[in-house]
Structure formats: C-alpha cells, structure tokens
Design goal:
The complex is a heterodimer.
Chain A lengths: L12 H28 L1 H12 E6 L6 E2 L5 E13 L4 H15 L3 H10 L9 E4 L4 H9 L7 E10 L7 H4 L1 E4 L2 H6 L9 E5 H5 L1 H5 L3 E7 L5 E8 L7 E2 L4 H11 L4 E7 L4 E8 L4 H5 L4 H9 L8 H4 L9 H11 L8 E3 L2 E4 L2 E4 L13 E3 L1 H7 L2 H22 L21 H8 L5 H7 L10 H12 L3 E3 L12 E3 L4 H16 L16 E7 L4 H7 L8 E8 L6 E7 L6 H4 L1 H19 L12 H6 L28
Parallel strand pairs in A: 2-10
Antiparallel strand pairs in A: 1-8, 2-3, 3-4, 3-5, 6-7, 8-9, 11-12, 11-21, 13-16, 14-15, 17-18, 19-20, 20-21
Helix pairs in contact in A: 10-23, 14-16, 14-20, 15-20, 16-18
Chain B lengths: L11 H22 L7 H21 L2 H6 L1 H10 L5 H18 L7 H20 L3 H17 L4 H19 L1 H7 L2 H11 L8 H15 L10 H4 L11 H33 L4 H25 L17 H19 L5
Helix pairs in contact in B: 1-2, 1-13, 2-15, 4-5, 5-6, 5-7, 5-14, 5-15, 6-7, 7-14, 10-11, 11-13, 13-14, 14-15
The chains are: A alpha+beta, B mainly alpha.
Amino acid sequence: MSYWFRNDNRLPQTRLAVVSYIIVGMIGLLLLGFWKLQVIDSDKYLQMAEQNRVRSIPIIAPRGRMLDRDGRVLVDNRPSFSVLLLRDDPKLVEQYLPAISEGLGISQDDLHDQLQNTRNLPKFQPIVIKPEASSADLDFIESHRSDIPVLEMLSISRRRYMPNGFLAHATGYVGEASEQQIEASNGKLRPGDVVGKNGLERQYNDILMGADGMRRVIVNSVGKEVDHLSQQDPIPGKQVTLTIDLDLQQVAEQSLGARPGAVVALDPRSGEVLAMVSRPTPDPNDFAVRISKDEWKQLNEDPLHPLLNRAIQAQLAPGSVFKIVTATAMLEDHNPPESFTTYCPGYGTFYGRQFKCWVYFSKKGATSHGVMNLHEAILHSCDVFFYSAGMRLGIDRLSFYGDKLGIGHKTGIDLPSEEAGLMPSEQWVERVFHRKWYAGETISVSTGQGAVTTTPLQLARLIGGIASGGVFKQPHLMKDAQNVGDERVAISESTVEKVTDAMYGVVNESGGTGTQLKLAGVELSGKSGTAQVIGYNTRNRLGKQKKFEDNAWFVGYAPKRNPEIVVAVLVQESGQHGGEAAGPVARDIVKAYYDKKNRKTLGTVTASEHSTTPSSGAAVVAPVVAIKPQGVPATQTHTADAEPDPQ
Amino acid sequence: MKEAPGTRDYDWWLLAILAAICALGVVEIYSATHASNLAGMHVKQIKWLLFGFAVMFILSRVDYHLILDQALILYVVCLGQDFQVSELAKLIIIIVLARFFAEVRSDELDLRDVLKAGMLVGVPLALILKQPDLGTALVLVPMLVVGAFLAGLKWQHAGIFTLAGILLVGSVFYPPVSKHILKPYQRERITSFLHPEDDAKGSGYQLLQSKIAVGSGGFWGKGFGNGSQNQLGYIPVRYSDFIMSAWAEEQGFKGVLLALGLYMALLLRLVQNAQRAKDRAGMFLVMGVAAALGFHVLVNVAMVIGAMPVTGIPLPLMSYGGSATLFVFMAIGLVMNVRLRRFVN
C-alpha cells in the first residue's frame, strides 16, 4: 500500500462543521425562493398558468339577413375561410413573415402594419391576416402545417350582397371596425369585428350584428387544442325586413342602366322606399372581405364618386321640377293671381338682364311658347312664366314655401349621411356670403336654378307630399319602422287640385313635356326638369362638352291624387331633357308597380315571388352592365360620407 | 489489510434517503410523461437506477486506497479520452483531488499547493469548456473549493480567491468581456436570464415557464398528474433538467419541502461520513462527492426557481438520465467504500 495515507487521520472537524452549516443555509435559501414563488406570489403565477392553458376562441355570430317587403332575401351570408396568424412568439412570426408574404400574396409591409395595429392585444389571441382565403391559400396552409406553424384557418360566415352593385347604396356594406368605432363602442367591439360601415348595414348595425360566442379550450404548449372547457353560443343577428320591392328595384336598376344618376321610388302613403338606385356603384361584395388601401383610394378619388349614394347625397339644382314649388307658392299666396298669364317670346328681361326660356334653344318646332297660363306653363315647363311669377313672389315667399316643402331639410330617412340640399334666402346669402341678395337670383331660383339644390329623395317626398294633399310621410327603408314622421303642410285643396291637374297634364295632355310617357290605364303624372350645370351663355362660350351637359330629372307618380307610388329619377349629364332621359325610368317603375298590383289582385302571383331562399333572390337579378363611363366628373356638391377605412 | 467488512456496515440511512429521492424522481417522471409520446420513461429510469445500484455495490467493494493509487493513470486517461464521458471526468477529478489534498501533510495549505490544485483542475476544466460543456466544467469548481477549504486554505488566500471568483463571474455577465470567453449560445442564456421578457421562446421562456409552474403549484400543489404546465408541456424538459419544476407544480411547497429536505439529509449524511472517515484521503473523497452533488442540487434548483441561468445541470437522482444517474451511484459507491473501511486497521 502506498505511503501517502499512513498515519493521516487528523480531520478538519471544524471546517467540516462549517460545510454542514453551508449546506443547511443553501437549502434554506432555496426554500425561501420556493416560498416566494409558491406562497407569496402564487396567485400571480396561477393566473399566468391559466393564461397559458386556456384560450378563448370567438364563435362569430352570423349577421342578420335583409329581406325585401315580400320576404325575398336581399342580403345574406356565405361561409368563408380566414387565415389566422398565431402571434404567441414574435420571433417565430418574424422568421416566417417572408414565407407567409410569398405564400399568401400579402406584402410584408401590410403584415407589419397589421401586427403593429394589434400589438396591444394579448399575445395568445391570433389575428386575421387574410380574411378571404382562396382554395390556393388553404392548400398553402395545409401543406406547410409543419414548417410554418404560425398559420391557422378560421371558418366564418361572410356577407353576400346581390351581384353588380344591386341595391348597393341602400344596403351599404360591412367591414372591420375602425379604431374610432372600437373606442366608441365601450368595449363591445374588438379589432377584427365586422360592423356595418355604410347604408342600412351601418344604420341597423345593432340589430343586424348579434353577439359573438366564445369557446374556451385548453391548449398545450404547441397550441394544440387538447380539451374543451365551456362554450357560450353566439346570438345571431336579427333579420331585417325592408320596404324595398325586389321587382321594382330590379326594374329601376335596369331602366337606369349604366348612366350616372339615381332613382328613388316611394309609397307616399306610408313613406316606404320601394326602390333606391345610385349609379355608378361599387360592388359591396368587395368590401365584405377587406379592401386594400389602393382600391379604397381609387374608389375615393374616382371622379364619378361611386361611393356617393346619389339618391340621398347628390345635391343638385332641381331645374323645372322646382316650378311645382313656385306654382304652389303662387297659388297659395294668390300672387300673382291664378289667372296670371305671360307672353313667352323665348326669353324675358328681368332686372335689366335677359333670361332665356328653354324653348329658345329648341331644335325642332317653335322657339317661343306664346301666351301661357299656369296650367300651360307647367305642361310646357315655360321658364318665362315662372320667372315672372317668381319675380312677383320674391325670394322670401319662394324660400318660405321651399323650406316648408322640405328643401334644405333632411327627410330623416333611415340611412346615414343624408344631405339636406339648400333653399337659398336673403338670410342665407348674408350668413354665408355676407352680401345682399341680388334680385336676379330670384329669377333663377324660381325655375330651380341658381343656388337651390335638392336630393332625388327630397324631390320624391316633395311631389308625393303635394299630391297627397300636404301629407309628408318620413321616407324609410325598415318595414316595421316605429314612429314614422308624419308632417302636414297646410296647402289648400284648390292648390293641390290645380297643381296635380297640371302634373297629370304633363304626361297626358298634348304639349306636355312627358307625353311620350303616357301609360294606358294608369294616371301617371309628374314633372320633368332639365337642370343646367352651367349657364347657357357660358356653355355657348366653352363649346359642347359632356361634363357640362344638363342633368335630366323626372319625378313621376300615380295616381293623380293621393298617389300610391312616386318615383324621382335623376340622370346626370345626359344632354337630354328630363322627360326624355329620366321620364322613361319613372314610367317603367310605375308600370311595373301596377303590373304587379294587377297580378296580385288577379291572384296570379307566382310562387317564386314569395320564396325566401337566397338563390331565388339572387337569380332574378339580371346583371347590370358594368358601370364605368369615363371622364365625367360628378356634381360639385357630392359628399361621400362613407367610413374611410382602408385596410 | 483485512477483507472488506459485511453488509452491516453499509450506510443504510444514506441508502434509504437515496431510495426516497429516486422514488420521488420516478413518480414525477411517470407523471410528466405517462400521457405523452414519452410514456414508459419511468421504467427506463428504474432500470438505470437498478444498474446504478449494482455499480455502486461493486465500487464499494474495491478499497478506495487502491483506486486512489491509480489517480495519476486515471487523470491521464481522463485527459486522453478528451472528456467525451464527462460524468466519468467528474468522478476522476474527485479521486485526483482527494489524492492530491491527502498528500499535503500540513494543516495549512500554502499558496504553492493551492496553485498546484488549481492547475490540476484548471487543465481539464479548460478542456471541458472547449467541448463545450459548461455544466460539467462548473461542477469541477466546487470540488476544488471544498477540497482546498478542508485542506486548510488560509483565510487571506480564501479572500483573494473569492475576489477573483467574483470578478470572473462578473465578467461573464459583463458583455464586453463575456464575448471573448463564452460561446454565443452561452451568452444568450446569460442575457435571457437577466432579461427573460426579451426572449419569448428561448431560455428566458423556459425559465419563465418554470417559474409559472412552480408558483402556480402553491402550497399544496395541483396534485399528481394535474399540473397544467407539466401535463401540457409548457415546462421545458419536464422529465429531466426541469423535473423539480414539475414536482413543485404538482406537489406544491409541501412537496418541495420533502424533496429539499431529503437532499439536505443526503448532503449532511455525506458530511457525517466524511467526519467519520478513517483518514484524510477518505474524507476528501467523500467531501468531493458531497461538493459535486451539493453543487448539482444548488444550481439545478436555483435554475428551476429562476435564480440562475439555464446551465444544463440535472438534479441528481430525480432527473431522468442514464449517465447522470450512473455518476451519482458511482460517487455514492466511493462514499460507501470509505464508510465500509472506517474501522479497518
């Protein structure tokens, strides 16, 4: 045995004892560490463990459908897939971004923006990076499940509107809630929630939206669902029945065609909107998913303003349709008296300036009207007569009646962003321009030119209200709307009688501006309007240009008194007279209304008209031709008030 | 020299404590893996334990003086085999240090001896660091420290070395210096230890998940097989390096008290065996083992509660692992060896 351990039994007992104390101290310190975690901070870590373990997955509530007045589906939902990005691990996400960008065709900047916008949400909550996944996208995710572990698919239901922008401006569209909307919702909305952005979708969002459900599941460390804790079922949004008549809407869409303009059909007895069209129109199905910044920019900068709902937002000179207001004022004020007549040589001189009558530019026939009384002046739409009448009335009285009949006031239709139009007055020029009213302006206003502007809806309400004897029902699109406004304007029976007789004559008496619209068996009445975009003199100076063409108006209704339907039609920059360009649209709709009414009374309503399946609703819609006339600027008074919310 | 003594002289208390710790380990390995694709791991662990027990028994029968005689050869072998079997390297360094300190005859260790011992450990340590195997390399340090302390390290030397140690540790945490001496992944572990929130899925994430597991266990624990962090796989390597985390989650503070109590008993029992060793050589051997095991427990458990960075040092006898288990049993075999011969001569 080796030498080195012999007689060597002096052990350092003290130092060994020190080592034991160190051991006890060390274990004690470790226990203190555990005490801190497990007893003092236990609740905090228990909560963190729960956050790890439990994941809340929203179950999207389907949005309520929109039906027409007969229960046919106008707007419903369809299933669709969204691509989710799991963001638990920012590093991992960052690493896969290029591959995701390439595979799904989303730019990396876009993805970065989305991550930035959602940075305040809990990390375990995935975000939607592509709302409308194509089958190629789904294939991509499926085939890269293992090498790109941060993608997931979510099946949801999406809005389906009728194709080609059918009824698009009335229904509006949905989109992801904007940051402002989320803030304003008091926690009801979360980023990514789909809400109504415009039109009825926005107006009745609370009814249509429903409440999302929630599934709480247990997930393991790689995000795989291993167990199910609880489920709160979604509350589907409520169905909304509209006053729209699919049949009339279809006729309206087709009859207006691709021309920029608008159509509103109302039942003046109830204020129900039977049809509403605005051209041009975007396809809201494009918004139902998510619209790219570029597309949104393009829509907003389009000179034709496709986002503008012209039926309620186009504020344009009503032209000769306004003569009904002037006529009403004259008859009510007896100034000039009913027997008043003028001689129209094709022009008139007022306040030292010559004002032309439209007949002066007439290409065929006479260039003057001759002697006119009120009835004839309405039939022929003689400007000189109304210049004279307006001059005698003065702007105060004209503006009083215009105001009473609703010009310059919103009709209160249940759509967001309605415009009020403008009834000029002395106070108005003083307030806005700080100047005195020029007497010559009265002459223009009395024939619906100058500063006076109205929306198509206002004109439909106005003409319908006068023909109903002064009863103005608030226009609305919700079928069982509560508290429909009912405004009564005191107009004498004789005034109503004379004005409606004249409007009947416009269509049915020889010499009327709408005689070509005559319908057998229907008391179609109405008033045409041809509103200048610029003055005659200016136009002559600049030469013939499309964008300076007249706006054609026609407001038609039937029957002659207490009408069941009134249709206002605007065809912008048509270059034709109101009766020629806009009149046929109004006639088609009124005709369709009576055809349907007669079929119903004869009991020959076809089964398909009462069907509520979405396919039948969509199937009867004939595609409207693509609506993109080039290079025509819209009115100067547009206000696209849609939510600017490009994603 | 007489024949080796009989079974009566084995340290039955030590064996009981060992068995208890092993049992906790097996139970928790089962709980952590039974519901996963790793199911059946506890059986493998039991096999390793049985094998380890047999090795321990064999090792205890060979007189430790014979083993110490071969220290030089073992040291050369150890350097020669390039530390592929790092567990064996630890064992050999224990033996080599025991031999070295036993040869120092004075009660006080002079500076030359300290530096010699430092060289003895420093060379393999540097080689192991190059592997790189930080965990194993670190274990050599407490062996040297405890050995030198018991061999009569002077207080003033101790002070100087402590200062040097603090500087070294400090430099590891000081990036401008650490980038010259540590591998990138090691530096990452250090930074993620200091700033766990910056490192969501790396070792910072591991430490955070471990803390969540421990903390959420509370005083009473979530119960066997009920730890969500454990069962759903949030705890990293929950059956091995982080088994204490899984145990703490399911058994709570009371379970931790039991486990750490057992480890304390084990270590104190080792010290007791050292105190009763027949000679200094035996004492150094036992204390070398105690230093290694104590350091394992300290570093592993401190990591589990987030007080130390991730180093890859397993918890002796509880963590799953063949070679680690074998090392502990061989080390205990040396201790038994010393104990069996305390009355000889």
